[in-house]
Amino acid sequence: MRLPVRLAVASGVAVLSTGIAGAQQKPELAGGGLSQAPPQITRIEPLAPQTTEAGPQPLGYESEVLCFGFIGSDDERFIASVVGAENQAEQTDFTTPNLLYVDAGYDRGIKPGQEYWLVVPGDEVIHPLSGKPMGRFYQYRGRAVVVCIQGRTSILRVNLACSDIPMGSFLKAYEPVPIPLGRKDKAAVACDPATGKVTGKIVYARDGVVAIGADSDVLIDLGVAQGIQPGDQLSIFRYAQGAEYGIRPQGAYWIYKPPAGGMEVPRTYLGDMAILYVGDRWAAARVIDSSRLIEVGDAVELK
Question: Which comes out higher in pLDDT, residue 50 or 225?
Answer without folding.
Answer: 225
